[in-house]
Amino acid sequence: MPSAIPSAGLLLAWYDRHRRRLPWRAASGEARDPYRIWLSEVMLQQTTVAAVGPRYARFLARFPSVEALAAADWAEVAEEWAGLGYYARARNLHACAKAVAAAGRFPCNRDGLAALPGIGPYTAAAVAAIAFDAPLVPLDGNVERVTARLHAVQEALPGAKPQLSALAARFMEDAAARARPGDFVQALFDLGATICTPRSPACGLCPWREGCAAQAAGIAAALPRKAPKAVRPLRHGAHFLLRDAAGRVLLRRRPAKGLLGGMLEVPGTPWRDAPWPAAEALPHAPLAAPWRLLPGLARHGFTHFELEMVLFAAALPDAPTPPGGEWLPAPEAARALPSVMRRLLALAADA
After folding, report:
1. I need a surface site. Which of 82, 210, 214, 333 has the fewest CB within 10 A?
2. Residue whose C-alpha is closest to residue 77's, from 120, 34, 42, 121
3. How confident is the model at residue 215 (pLDDT cuts 50, 70, 90)?
C-alpha cells in the first residue's frame, strides 16, 4: 500500500477550476457563514445534494440566521423539515440553534462544536474545517471512497473506517492543505462527488490519478468494499385517515422522543411484527366513524426496518377534535407530514 501523501496543490488547482457552485458554499474571497455550513452538513446527512438544494434555500428563507431558528416554535421547524427524513436531526438542529444563540456564536474548534446537541465527530470536523479553517479531514462517504482507492484499501466498510480515517488525516501533512484547509476539504468532497464516483469513476480526469494504487491495479470501481447488509425486519401498521365537511384531515403529533419524534402523523396503531386485522386495528381509531379499508399497502423503508401500512378512511361532517388531534387542510397536511405519512395520503389518492 503506497504511503506517499498525494499533492494537495494538484487537488486545490483542480478545485479552483472545477469547484461546484452550491448554495451553502461561499464564493472565493467571500466570508464563510458557520450557520449556513452547519445547516447544510446536517441536511446532507443520509440525503443527496440534489434533494437538499431546494429545501435548503426554503429553510434558509424561513430561518435566515441561527437566532431566527432558535426563536422559532418547534412546530414551525418540524413543518419545514417534513419530508427530509431522519427527524431526530430536526430536534437536534433546533436544540443546537438555541445553544449557539444563547452563547452568542458558534464555537470555532472541533471540541467546542462536538459539545453542541446533535453534532457528532464528522459534523464537528466538517464545520471546523470549512467554516474556521481547522486542519482536519472529516470522513464522509466521498472522502472514504477517495482514500480507499488512493491506497487500495481492501478491508470492507464499516470495518475499514479507522484505517481510512488515519490515512485521510495524513492529507493535512501537506503544507498546501494546511494553508487552505477549508478549500482542501471541499475539494475532496467535490473529487468524490464528480470524479471518483461510486460507479464508473472518471480516472482519466482525476488530478490524483498518477498516485492512485487502485487505478494502477485496475480495481478502482470495486473499492471501497462493503460488508453485506443485514436483512431488515418487516413491521406492520394500520392508520386512519379522517376528513371533515371542509375536507380537513385529522392529524396528531407523535411523542417528542423516539422515531419521528415531535412530527405530525396520520393516527394509527403501533408498528409491530404481525399484520393488523381490522378487528384488532379498529379499536385504535381516533373516533368512531364508518371506516372502510382501502385497497393496497403503503410501504416505507427506515434504517433498521421496512414498514407496511394499511389505511382505513372515513368522513365525518361534524367530527369533534379528539385529545391530541388537530385538523389541517389536505394541502397543508401534505406539506407538514413526514415522508412515511405522505405515502398514506398517496394511497388514499389512488383508491
Report:
1. 210
2. 42
3. very high
* Residue 172 and residue 136 in contact, taking contact as beta carbons nearer than 8 Å: yes
Q: Which of 41, 79, 80, 144 is catalytic?
A: 41
Cα(first)–Cα(last) distance of the chain, in Å?
58
Q: Within 13 A of 163's CA, how many CA atoms are on the CB side?
A: 18
Q: What is the pLDDT of residues 55-103, one digit of tens each?
A: 999 999 999 999 999 999 998 999 899 888 778 889 999 999 999 999 9
Give the rounded distance of the alpha carbon of 274 from its chain centre.
29
- The residues, any chain, with a CB within 8 Å of residue 19's CB and separated by 6 or more, are 25, 186, 187, 190
Quote the pTM value: 0.82
CATH code matching the domain that covers 234-350, chosen among 3.90.79.10, 3.60.15.10, 3.40.50.2000, 3.40.50.300: 3.90.79.10
C-alpha radius of gyration, the chain, whole number: 24
d(C-alpha 250, C-alpha 273), whole Å: 26
Q: Domain 8-222: which topology?
A: Endonuclease III; domain 1 (1.10.340)
DSSP state of 255: P
Q: What is the pLDDT of residues 132-179, one digit of tens each?
A: 999 999 999 999 999 999 999 999 999 999 999 999 999 999 999 999
Please tell me the predicted confidence (pLDDT) of residue 3.
52
41 labelled catalytic: yes
